[in-house]
């Protein structure tokens, strides 16, 4: 039987959440410890555990069909590979940072300076656009230490909370790009595999939609129901059911998880009571 080959990071930031996503899609993977290849029990999927940096080339060569990768890695190594789904986790930036005490005015301050990074293509492209010539040193990890040991004047690396920069006495001065985990696909995918990919992507979309929304239930006096419905930014029309207590109704709807906090005060001041916010397991639209 044809199986879709998906590459997942072997270990590191993306590994756990990528596997969690597949699990939420109802896919069970037989995983032995330190196994580099595994099969799904209930879906035509073969999982390959690889180093992130190697995955774009495997996709370009058609050895792997799809992959979960950081967008930043794709930009650095596989510019032509398409992003077919943004997955909403591992959000970060790729930024330039310099020592805190350096007075930084503009990118022109980096002319002729040494920049340490694990993302040379991304940096080169950015500097070229700005017409700046710098001396790029490629290092594979602990990039933030470079200025402190006299290896570089600036760095380009991933910034999330900013705590690594802070601990190394650095400050962010330019943002090159924003990144999150994405689903990307090989250009040489067969028609047969495309059908499997469509099924997988449909499941992923149902999981992501569910993660982004909440099921909300609330009670309200009947005369307030109209006003409350106007406030609710629901999917469609909310469900209104009578309560056992005369003159009261229960309103059920689905709300984007971020929008909920925007309307909660308004709901309460319009008479909503007993508000319940529940997670949604899957959402198929
Ligand atoms: N601090 C962070 N917060 C959020 N996302 C991050 C953070 N650091 C890295 N990432 C994202 O996770 C991806 C994987 O990072 P990680 O450091 O685990 O692996 P790597 O060293 O880039 O790759 P390899 O698998 O080749 O060793 C990065 O490409 C980036 O998209
Ligand atoms: O802004 P922050 O929240 O501090 O995150 C940024 C840090 O996270 C990543 O390193 P990671 O922890 O993945 O270690 P690594 O150097 O082994 O990749 C990245 O390379 C930065 O160093
Ligand atoms: Mg890292």
From TrEMBL:
Protein name as catalogued: ATP phosphoribosyltransferase
Record EC number: 2.4.2.17
Catalysed conversion reaction: 1-(5-phospho-beta-D-ribosyl)-ATP + diphosphate = 5-phospho-alpha-D-ribose 1-diphosphate + ATP
Ranges where the ATP phosphoribosyltransferase catalytic domain occurs: 51-205
Requisite cofactors: Mg(2+)
GO molecular function, one term: magnesium ion binding
Family affiliation: Belongs to the ATP phosphoribosyltransferase family. Long subfamily.
Pathway involvement of the protein, from the record: Amino-acid biosynthesis; L-histidine biosynthesis; L-histidine from 5-phospho-alpha-D-ribose 1-diphosphate: step 1/9
Organism: Aureibaculum marinum
Principal cellular location given in the protein's record: cytoplasm
InterPro entries reported in the protein's UniProt record: ATP-PRT_HisG_long, ATP_PRibTrfase_cat, ATP_PRibTrfase_CS, ATP_PRibTrfase_HisG, HisG_C, N-reg_PII-like_a/b, N-reg_PII/ATP_PRibTrfase_C
Compartments, record wording: Cytoplasm
Main function: Catalyzes the condensation of ATP and 5-phosphoribose 1-diphosphate to form N'-(5'-phosphoribosyl)-ATP (PR-ATP). Has a crucial role in the pathway because the rate of histidine biosynthesis seems to be controlled primarily by regulation of HisG enzymatic activity.
Keywords: Amino-acid biosynthesis, ATP-binding, Cytoplasm, Glycosyltransferase, Histidine biosynthesis, Magnesium, Metal-binding, Nucleotide-binding, Transferase
Activity regulation comment: Feedback inhibited by histidine.
GO biological process assignments: L-histidine biosynthetic process
GO cellular component, one term: cytoplasm
Histidine biosynthesis HisG C-terminal domain sequence ranges: 210-282
SUPFAM superfamilies, per the entry: GlnB-like, Periplasmic binding protein-like II
HAMAP family reported for this sequence: HisG_Long
